[in-house]
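=== RUN LOG ===
request id: a7f3
mode: sequence -> structure
chains: 1
length: 231
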Amino acid sequence: MPRKRTPKPTVTETHNIHPQLMSLKVEVGLLQLDPDNARGHNEPNIDSIANSLREFGQRKPIVVRKGTMVVTAGNGTLIAAKREGWTHIAALVADDNDMQAMAWALADNRAGELASWDYGRLVTQFGILQGGGVDVAALGWDVRELAMLTQSAFTPEAIAELPGDKRGEGNTGGAGQVGGTSTDQDIDKESFKELVALYHRYHPEGEELGAFVLRAVHALVKDASPVAAED
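=== RESULT ===
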C-alpha cells in the first residue's frame, strides 16, 4: 500500500504588516542585521519603533540586499519586529553592489537628521492628540522632553532656576544674562526649546540640563558649537 503523506505543519504568521505591503512579505529568519551599520539603536529608539509597529502596523518596507538579505535600511525596525515576535516583515529587496548598499544606508539615515521641527506646531499637535486620548509619550518623546516642550509659561528669568547653574555667590545674572555677564539678547522660548532638544540628543552623560543650557549659551555668544564647548 502507498504511504500516506504526512501533512506539512501549518506555520502561524505573526506580524502587523499593512495590507498594501503584503506582496513584500518575507520571513524574518531569512534576514540579517547589518554588522557594519553606522547607525546605533538604543533602547528608547527600539521601544519607540515597537510602539509604532503595534499601534499603526508596518507602513513602509525595510530595504535588504538581494542575495545576502542583509538589511541596508530598517535595522531598528527589524530588531523591534523580532522583539514583538513577528515571523514576517515587509522588505524591498534591492540588487545593490557593496558601494551602492553602503552609500544608500548612510544617505537614508542622514536624510532624517537634516530635517527640523516646527516646535510651535509640534506642541499644538501634542495638545490635539492628548485631547483625543492619545498617549504622545508613546510616539517617541520621553516625559522630560514633553514637560519642557509643552510648557506655556516660560520666561527668560526661568533660566536662573535651572539645575546645574554653578554661578558664584553674589553673581546674580538675570534675564538675558549668563553667569552675570550680559549676552545682549534674551533667551526666548523657542530658542530654549531648541536647546532642550539638543540636550536630550547630545549632552555628555551625567551633565544636568541647566549646565548644558548655560554652556550652550556661552558657546553661542562666542559663535562656537554648544556640543563642542568646554565647561
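=== NOTES ===
The two ends are 86 Å apart (CA to CA).
The CA atoms of residues 164 and 210 lie 5 Å apart.
=== END ===
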